Amino acid sequence: MDTAIQNYARTLTLRSPDHYRVGPFTVRHNPSWELKFANYAIPDQDAEPTARDIADLVAAFRAHDRLPRLEFLPAWAPAVEPALLAAGFTVENRAPVLACTADGLLTPEPVDGLHVAEPVTDDEFTSAAAVQHTGFGGEGGPDDGEIAWLRGATEGGGVSALATVDGLPAGAGGCSVPVDGIGELAGLAVAGTFRRRGVGAALSAWLTRTAFERGFHAVWLEPGGPDVERIYAGIGYRRTGEKLNISLDPA
Predict the structure, then answer these.
(1) If the chain, 251 residues long, is cut into consecutive pieces of 10 residues, what is the mean pLDDT of each piece?
(2) Which residues belong to any copy of the N-acetyltransferase domain (predicted)?
(3) Are the C-beta atoms of 170 and 164 separated by less than 8 Å?
(4) Parallel, antiparallel, or unpaired: how do β-strands 69-72 and 238-247 relate?
(5) How far is residue 132 from each of residues 27, 128, 207, 245, measured CA to CA in Å?
(6) H-helix segments, 104-225
(7) Are 86 and 147 within one domain?
(8) Residue 63 lies in domain
(9) Which of 47, 95, 163, 236 is surrounded by the most beta carbons within 10 Å?
(10) Does one domain contain both 120 and 164?
(11) Rg of the Cα trace of the chain?
């Protein structure tokens, strides 16, 4: 599963219109969204980058006004992490990777007044992106990139969702465009006043179930912490590996 997940991430990056190559790295670049999680590099499988390769990669990120950053499964390219550390990069975290298949999905407890549906109108996409924006600590309104990501998921064969409770925006998230039947559950956020009420579990299960209904055979994700991992475990997600998030502090 680990190799399939890394292949998924790299293939999706290669499909993005603004990606670029630097040595043995493919860089996912989002020109309209500065968020570090939307801009990162993935090494080629079994890459053995030189100091020059890494210096060129850093220079490319700086030229695009982005934080030099990589996300990848260490087993995919074991020589890359030591080379990055030698170049001054710092490990942000080692995040567990969870996955769920159709026969493993569990049904969470119902939430009174909850309604989950895919956004259709401009207002609905903006409301969903606004929940994500504030849920991840942003101020003001959502970025264009956040709205575009949700639209792209829906239009490309993935799934996006807006959850409401008694008509009020309560949660949002998406499952990205599939690659060989695999998709990523990402961007899931719950509005502050609706947390700890089961909205996150119900929304995650809805997105995952809808992805399976659209032909996915597995969905993976990277939980934000132990508490969040327990929520996903409660609907059937299980650990399959570990992903390294590593970056270089701004110059």
Answers:
(1) 86 90 96 88 97 98 96 95 98 94 95 96 94 85 85 90 96 93 93 94 97 95 90 95 92 62
(2) 120-251
(3) yes
(4) antiparallel
(5) 24, 7, 15, 21
(6) 122-135, 144-155, 199-213
(7) no
(8) 2-96
(9) 163
(10) yes
(11) 18
